[in-house]
């Protein structure tokens, strides 16, 4: 399994609207791409800025490329990202998942 990570920053006051926007755009597209095994969006406020980290899980790098395109390191952006983001990584990182332990109930 592959984990794809990306980070971006908004103004602190834009956390909730940007989360809603992410759900309508990137998260929806991630979840709808064959081979996607999950999406997590993390936020934290640091002063007047909020950091976002998006981690998606994938069956393979081929599945990642089905979402991201031929150069899987290039981050995927949507039309209104410029309205929210004050800073962003222009790339995504990929990691092999070394341990996969499902939650115990």
Describe the 3D structure:
- This protein has helices at 15-24, 26-32, 61-68, 81-84, and strands spanning 2-11, 36-46, 49-58, 85-88, 93-96.
- With 105 residues, the chain is of the alpha+beta class.
- Strands 1, 2, 3, 4 and 5 form a 5-stranded antiparallel β-sheet that branches.
- A hairpin with a 2-residue loop joins strand 2 and strand 3.
- The protein is globular, with a radius of gyration of 14 Å.
SSE diagram, text form:
Layout: E1 2-11, H1 15-24, H2 26-32, E2 36-46, E3 49-58, H3 61-68, H4 81-84, E4 85-88, E5 93-96
Antiparallel strand pairs: 1-3, 1-4, 1-5, 2-3
Helix pairs in contact: 1-2
Q: Characterize the main sheet.
A: 5 strands, antiparallel
Percentage of residues in helical conformation: 25-40%
- Note the total helix count: 4
CATH class: Alpha Beta
The structural domain count equals 1
CATH topology: Alpha-Beta Plaits
Order of helices and strands: EHHEEHHEE
Query: Which structural category do the helix and sheet elements fall into?
Result: alpha+beta
Shape: globular
Q: Can you tell me the CATH architecture?
A: 2-Layer Sandwich
Average of per-residue pLDDT values: 96
Radius of gyration: 14 Å
End-to-end CA span: 23 Å
Parts with pLDDT < 50 across at least 5 consecutive residues: none
* Beta strand %: 35-45%
Strand segment count: 5
């Amino acid at each position: 399994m592959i984990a794809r990570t990306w980070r971006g920053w908004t103004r602190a006051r834009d956390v909730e609207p940007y989360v809603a926007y992410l759900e309508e755009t990137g998260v929806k597209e991630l979840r709808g791409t064959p081979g996607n095994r999950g999406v997590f969006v993390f936020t934290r406020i640091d002063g007047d800025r909020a950091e976002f980290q998006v981690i998606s899980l994938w069956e393979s790098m081929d599945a990642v490329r089905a979402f991201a395109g031929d150069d899987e390191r290039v981050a995927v952006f949507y039309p209104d990202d410029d309205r929210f983001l004050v800073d962003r990584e222009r790339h995504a990182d990929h990691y092999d998942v070394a341990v996969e332990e499902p939650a115990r109930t």
